[in-house]
């Protein structure tokens, strides 16, 4: 399960619900929780990587994935424990990969905000790190509409127009 996280409530919800399904005999094993945060604000990833039980105050730099830009998650200890208990992992997604991920999903008909789209480069990173293999079934949650993030929306519109122009053999020029 690949999940984007700010405060981590979605991570905790998944961990709780999967545990209930397991106890009820509806699933035979608990899925691993693989978590993505924007590199510009990734206190959970930093705490996880250092082996800490809680996050330390993190600087919050601007990011287009503003929905997951939370410098001090209130339930950090629970989130870190849930990911560790699932044998999961965490990834800090570089800022320059967020908008292209939004566009990549939009090209498939999934118009999400960068907060959700950050799972795309995270999946790639988890695969490079050996956390995911070609035999794994990957499930993710794309919860935020692209209409919520105007900067990402504008980027997508420009890129879509440029792509259409190129496919028609046209060249785009800025008007000076």
From TrEMBL:
InterPro entries: TrpB-like_PALP, TrpB-like_PALP_sf. Keywords: Pyridoxal phosphate. The keyword Lipoprotein does not apply. Its cofactor is pyridoxal 5'-phosphate. This is Threonine synthase. Coiled coil: none annotated. The keyword Manganese does not apply. GO terms for biological process: alpha-amino acid metabolic process. Residues 1-144 form the Tryptophan synthase beta chain-like PALP domain. It comes from Prauserella isguenensis. It comes from the Bacteria. It holds the Pfam family PALP. The lineage of its organism: Bacteria, Bacillati, Actinomycetota, Actinomycetes, Pseudonocardiales.
